[in-house]
Specification:
Layout: E1 3-6, H1 12-23, E2 27-32, H2 35-48, E3 54-58, H3 64-78, E4 83-86, H4 102-130, E5 133-138, H5 152-172, E6 177-183, E7 187-188, H6 190-193, H7 199-212, E8 214-215, H8 216-229, E9 236-238, H9 242-251
Helix pairs in contact: 1-8, 3-4, 4-5
């Protein structure tokens, strides 16, 4: 039985990955910033999966002591950690970079980049001690250098995550520990919908999202299976490939999708 630790897994992609790994017979440690969110996620997952394989531990990834505690609790419950996924992240969306508060900038950088560093650090130490393991960092908009208005802060952190992943993969080359990245593409979550947009901007981007985006329950089972099957260091497991993007635009006139039925973004205030 594989054991998996996922940061930021009380909702969205992280929660979907937890569900997918449990469905494949793994034991999973769910984590999030608040005890209440963790308890709710564990309770919900335990209703559809073997409760003896579902564990929870609150963890604010910006606090190195809490990240270390996550590792320690996982080892206490599971005895080993086969897979560690640094998924926790926040958007920090704003109409313009100048509208961001210093505290908001610090929070996004600490969560999306420094938090990944803390997670990778403790996971590397634990896996090197046990003699095996795989670490995956979650990519996002900006990882490949692409630009989108209003995402300067978020995209900068995700570009840093890609560099970190490649650098760590180089460091562990030739050892029993693997480092890689997960690239889910556009996934319909609160994270995506919750970004502040004007109604006009939302109408424009919604059309693109309906062509390229997918639901959590479509993407995460595929990602989880790819992680379980992977044996190579330095890989990027990508759902939305360039070939898939081209195919979707070509077939868009024949496909009618509304992935956002009942969902709406926050309007600018």
């Amino acid at each position: 039985m594989k054991t998996v630790v996922i940061t930021g897994s009380t909702r969205g992609i992280g929660r979907g990955l937890a569900d997918a790994f449990l469905a494949r017979g793994c034991a999973v440690v769910v984590s999030g910033r608040t005890p209440e969110a963790v308890e709710q996620a564990v309770a919900a997952l335990s209703t559809t999966h073997d409760a003896t394989r579902v564990f929870g531990q609150p963890c604010n990834v910006t606090d190195p002591a809490e990240v270390q505690a996550l590792l320690d609790v996982a080892l206490t419950h599971l005895g080993q950690i086969d897979i560690w996924i640094n998924n926790a992240g926040i958007s920090g969306a704003a109409p313009g970079f100048q509208d961001l508060e210093p505290g908001q900038i610090r929070q996004v950088v600490d969560t999306n980049l420094v938090g990944v560093m803390y997670g990778a650090r403790v996971a590397l130490r634990g896996m090197q001690a046990q003699g095996w393991g795989s670490i995956y960092n979650m990519e996002g908009l900006g990882s490949d250098g692409s630009l989108q208005r209003g995402t300067a802060l978020y995209g900068t952190t995700k570009r840093g995550v890609r560099y970190l992943t490649r650098a760590l993969a180089q460091e562990v080359a030739g050892t029993p520990v693997l480092v890689g990245a997960l690239s889910p593409g556009m996934v319909v979550t609160d994270f995506l919908v919750g970004q502040t947009r004007s109604p006009e901007d939302w109408a424009r981007v919604k059309r693109i999202f309906n062509i390229l985006a997918d639901r959590v329950e479509t993407v995460t089972p595929w990602l989880a299976q790819q992680v379980l099957d992977n044996r190579r260091n330095g890989v990027t497991i990508a759902w939305l490939t360039r070939r898939k993007v081209i195919a979707r635009f070509l077939t868009a006139p024949l496909r009618r999708r509304d992935l956002f039925d009942g969902l709406a973004p926050r309007a600018n205030e």
